[in-house]
Amino acid sequence: MSRKPAASNLPKNWPETLPYLSKQTFPTSLDRNVLATLRLRPQDAQDVSSIPRGPCPLVKITPITTPSHPAVGQAGLFASKDLKAGSFILQYLGETHAPLTTSSSMVDPHATSDYDLSLDREHGIGIDADKMGNEARFINDYRGIGPKPNAEFREIWDVKTGERGMGVWVLPEGKSGKGKGIRKGEEVLVSYGRGFWGARKGGDENTKYD
């Protein structure tokens, strides 16, 4: 891990104790076969040639103070300008990881993470923003906040680096009539998916895991 970024290079309201990532990084512990997989472009990945390498000017981390908001006392991600339907917002950054070897007796540290996104299910590769990441980790689920999501996670292909990744996109116009863009000041909301909530049955579906 590189040295801690200067405060001027951190987004406003970024937690002081959490490492901020400005680009995708791969731990030295990753197997070479995993690294090779991450450098093969999937057919369904979306090409992106311009990815912010630092604080994203399109969004801002904002403390939640509205009493009725399910994440009150925590934070969310809000648009700092109007975002067009179908447009790319930012990359989801965190610790890229793969399954532990079958001979390992260690407990998988990502198994119970609330910030872990699957990147390649076949090879068990994920991106976990629990211990490090960027602004994207503050995106809340729409439940209890809005009638429906206005953004989604979608796999990307970084044209400049030749690497797979996960991105956050404004929902397109034709997606069940949901994609109407995100206005300045509106919260960026996604659906965490049934798998996320299914693993937490018995809990509050509107809890913000932060």
Features:
single chain, 210 residues, mainly beta, Beta-clip-like, four-stranded mixed β-sheet, three-stranded antiparallel β-sheet, 24% strand, globular, disordered C terminus
Break the fold down into its secondary structure elements and pairings:
Layout: H1 32-38, E1 46-48, E2 59-63, E3 75-79, E4 88-92, E5 95-97, E6 116-120, E7 125-128, E8 140-141, E9 151-158, E10 163-170, E11 189-190, H2 194-198
Parallel strand pairs: 1-9, 8-11
Antiparallel strand pairs: 2-3, 4-10, 5-7, 6-7, 9-10
Explain the overall architecture:
This protein is mainly β. It has one domain (20-198): Beta Complex (Beta-clip-like). The chain is built from 2 helices and 11 strands, in the order αβββββββββββα. It has helices at residues 32-38, 194-198; strands at residues 46-48, 59-63, 75-79, 88-92, 95-97, 116-120, 125-128, 140-141, 151-158, 163-170, 189-190. The strands form 4 sheets. The protein has a 4-stranded mixed sheet with strand order 1-9-10-4, with no helix packed on it.
The main β sheet shows up as: 4 strands, mixed
Distance between the termini: 22 Å
- The rounded Rg comes to 17 Å
CATH topology assignment = Beta-clip-like
Put simply, the count of helices is 2
Give the mean pLDDT: 85
Q: Helical percent range?
A: under 10%
CATH superfamily: SET domain
- Share in β-strands: 15-25%
Uncertain ranges: 196-200, 202-210
The helix/strand series, from N terminus to C terminus, equals HEEEEEEEEEEEH
CATH architecture heading: Beta Complex
E-strand count: 11
Strand order of the biggest β-sheet: 1-9-10-4
What best-fitting shape do the alpha-carbon axes yield? globular
